[in-house]
Design brief:
mainly alpha; 4 strands; 207 residues; 9 helices
Length: 207
């Protein structure tokens, strides 16, 4: 498909799908907001600077899953980092808001406010997950240029293939694979598999 047509159709899909999720999924947003609020108070959202298309820095929005001073505590827990490469990830992060924060993070429900980044044109439903500014600066210029040639996404090939269970090198390879073979059909498959994966994680935890 012609790249310009792809971008137009993809943008149209992003807007329509995002509005549909908000209209039909607002009870989920409300329930999560109430749970976060009652569990650990305000703010309900976590905001962080991320690197997007063409190296543009934007503010990403997520439901807060960690204590308020989580970023300040990061250095304290560096020795617990389970991820290789320039990223930081702890499965049972001590900064989580007890089981609630861990559940939201591992199910991906904390990413729902990313939808507003999509509506603002800063993200797409499918694309490489945007890295925090400090982490993005640490990857090779070649890989960074490839990743930043498209809008970052809420979900990606990396997400549906195991996310942080994979090594950093594999993560970058999957992002490059997506960009090199980008199609609407691939986007739809990734969204479908993401939805099924999220439902599986939620049902497993709740049953």
């Amino acid at each position: 498909m012609n790249s310009s047509y792809y971008r137009i159709i993809k943008r149209g899909f992003d807007i329509i799908f995002s509005l549909g999720v908000i209209v039909f999924g607002w009870p989920v947003f409300l329930i999560i907001a109430i749970i976060v609020g009652f569990t650990d108070g305000f703010p309900l959202l976590f905001k962080q600077k991320r690197v997007g298309k063409n190296a543009k820095v934007f503010t990403i929005y997520k439901f807060r899953t960690m204590v308020r001073n989580a970023e300040n505590l990061k250095k304290k827990y560096l020795k617990l980092n389970e991820a290789d490469g320039p990223v930081f990830k702890i499965t049972n992060d001590p900064r989580f808001i007890n089981g609630v924060g861990k559940f939201l993070a591992q199910s991906g429900l904390d990413e729902l406010p990313n939808i507003f980044n999509v509506l603002l044109g800063e993200m797409s439903w499918v694309g490489p997950r945007p890295l925090p500014v400090a982490e993005a600066k640490k990857i090779s210029p070649k890989i960074r240029k490839i990743r930043e040639s498209v809008l970052p996404g809420i979900t990606s090939l990396w997400v549906i293939n195991g996310a942080h269970q994979l090594g950093f090198k594999k993560w970058m390879q999957l992002d490059q694979q997506y960009i090199q073979n980008i199609t609407l059909a691939q986007d739809l498959r990734i969204i479908l598999k993401t939805g099924l994966k999220c439902l599986e994680l939620v049902s497993t935890r709740c049953l």
